[in-house]
Amino acid sequence: MKLHEVRVYPSKEPLKREDQLAWKIAGVAADRVGVTKEVTNMVINRIIDNAAVAVASLNRRPAVSARGAALGHLKKMGGAQIFGAPARVTVSPEWAAWANGTAVRELDYHDTFLAADYSHPGDNIPPILAVAQALEKSGKDLIRGIATGYEIHVNLVKGICLHEHKIDHIAHLCPAQAAGIGTLLRLKQEVIYQAVQQAVHVSFTTRQSRKGEISSWKAFAPAHAGKLAVEAVDRAMRGEGAPSPIYEGEDSVIAWMLDGPEAVYHVPLPEPGEAKRAILDSYTKEHSAEYQAQALIDLAFRMRNSIEDLEAIEKIVIYTSNHTHTVIGTGANDPQKMDPKASRETLDHSVMYIFAVALQDGFWNYKSSYAPRHAARPDTVRLWHKIETVEDPEWTRRYHTLDLSEKAFGGRVEIVFKDGSRLVDEMAVANAHPLGARPFGRKDYINKFKMLTEGIITTRESNRFLQAVQDLPRLGPGELSALNIILPAGALDESRPGIF
């Protein structure tokens, strides 16, 4: 890996194309280095993971709306499949990316990577898969494209912080998706360079989508990035250019939306010929909640075994990182995070609610744990409102360290009882994390898939998909429709009418 310095250049100080971050990203994407067996296996795991959470959300309102819009763009030739729909139903690939990306993201239940910024790199898969299906690429082509998407996404997240400037994290996702599509299609570096720049230019949006009363746009945002990425690559393939230099320009994103004209960032990227392995740095979720809550859910399960009466609790203090405290904790100063009538999208960004329910129930379920009747239960509200978060500098340091062996996303919990006694425990990483007590492997991904799809798809369809995806390297050109999952006839809800 090589660290690349990225800073702003005034217009009077021209920056050579070869020295621009977008050009270097394009170089990584254009490098035809092979994919290791370990990375190939993890790509398969993450396709299974995405499919699981997508199928479970297919009849939730955002996924229904996205699918309805996509079905307004049917395409008989050169189309891509939509999760749940029959294989014969194909739509324009950018709209398949929109529908499938929304379904994947709706439950906030797939993979994550956290560093200088944060991300859900599994969001790279839907647009890359859609283009692969539309242009009849092979399983190996798809694997290469996904490996690139993860590589660029994870390394941008390591090097450039967006959230401190209230920029939503899809600003790193969209160029990664464009780069992954470029690798999939074996495009030249010049073409990928223009596509990456266009993708960056159109994907900088604010974090209001994850603040206050969080709406369904949280699910749509990564899918919107994927749609934009497909369009950016299409435009570049037709010979069109993009705003340049997109990162370093005097009036571009770093100068005006991030750290400003004096900013200096360092972004790691693989050297030519170096394998793309960043997907191995990411981790999935065992529980359907914001990633920073994963370890705290597991910790709540452990601590409840030492508590006889939850009503005897006076207060609970969670000492954690700045990010956890200010984004999903009381440091966010969002009253909605304590509101029994809050949306699911808000509750899964409230660690106070999440810890309370995990402590009460001893299990986590993507449906019942967020049920309005649970959020409104008097005993849940009482416990929930006794919880606060506090930033601890050491947990903040461990959150941001690039030393993956020391990196932590959990916290220390102190439970104070009415009699003055205390119960204190801590957990650095979730059980399912690669360094956790029970790291996720292929068997766990398959079990998660079966659990989330039970009663939604047939056993025969489940077995067919799992066999096909695990045979991904051997799927030939035009065979990637096998990765679509079909629901029984009449099982898909129809959306309300719109324009399309």
From TrEMBL:
Entry EC no(s): 4.2.1.79
Species whose genome carries this gene: Acidocella aromatica
Subunit field text: Monomer.
MmgE/PrpD C-terminal domain segment(s): 287-472
EC category: lyase
Record has Lyase as a keyword: yes
Keywords per UniProt: Lyase
Top-rank lineage group of the source organism: Bacteria
TM annotation in the entry: none
Family designation: Belongs to the PrpD family.
Domain MmgE/PrpD N-terminal: 20-263
Any Pfam family the entry gives: MmgE_PrpD_N
Keyword Lyase: yes
Descriptive protein name: 2-methylcitrate dehydratase
GO molecular function: 2-methylcitrate dehydratase activity
